[in-house]
Amino acid sequence: MIRGVGADVVDVARLSRSLVRTPALAARLFTPAERRFPSGAERPPASLAARFATKEAVLKALGGPLGVGWRDIEVTQCASGRPSVRTHGPATAHAARLGITAWHVSLSHDAGIATALVVAEGDDTPTRPATDGTHGP
Amino acid sequence: MAHTHATRIREFITGRHPQAELTDTQDIFSLGFINSLFAMELVMFIEKEFAVTLPNDELRIDNFRTIAAMSELVERRLAATASAA
What is the C-alpha separation between B81 and B83, in angstroms, rounded? Predict the structure, then answer.
């Protein structure tokens, strides 16, 4: 059962300018793992913008900004490169309250715009607790 | 003091969106130019401009809906910083 849907678009150049203008911003928005590829190389602005868009899309799927910080929503990547979402703290609590048990994520960036679409999936019991805050494949 | 905060917040918003004519109590989200990136820039501006930290539990839409609400948020965080010092 679909519990929520969220979409967001981000201007890559604008986010890039913000990251340059405010050096502390990257650490505020992204976990250390999000800022790098699994290989250890730093992610370029387009990739970070797609991750920021994902966080905002997840917030929308949860029903809006509800005291959830950007790092409470972590965009992960499995070995195949497929993105997913891991929630922490209040984001996990909100997801549990909505009965969300899995997140499905699609990211894209082209022509200077990063986009994210997320679908929150759950079972028929809206109060099922999330055990470890990990959702997705 | 809150009046000064409101002025600086308004200047930030109109600096990015010159077409915006804002009163202190106007719902800025109803005006159509606020997106997720601008909301993030607004949070970072408030933290930097007023030397406050906004904890996650303050990142609620009602705290940013109007200039007055943001001014109150700044006052609250400044008071919290002062009491912790």
Answer: 6
Instruction: Determine contact: B51 vs chain A, CB below 8 A.
Output: no
pLDDT tens, residue order, chain B (85 aa): 566 799 989 889 989 788 787 889 988 888 787 788 888 888 989 998 999 989 988 987 889 989 999 998 998 899 987 877 6
Domain that holds residue A99: 2-135
* Residue B36 structure tokens: 């997720």
Cβ–Cβ of B40/A18 closer than 8 Å?
A: yes
Give the residues across from A11 on adjacent strands: A113
Q: What is the residue extent of each domain of chain B?
A: 2-17+24-84
Comparing CB atoms, the residue among B37, B44, B60 nearest residue A22 is B44
**Which CATH number fits the domain B2-17+24-84, given the four candidates 3.30.565.10, 3.40.50.300, 3.30.499.10, 1.10.1200.10?**
1.10.1200.10
Helix (H, G, I), strand (E, B) or coil at A116: strand
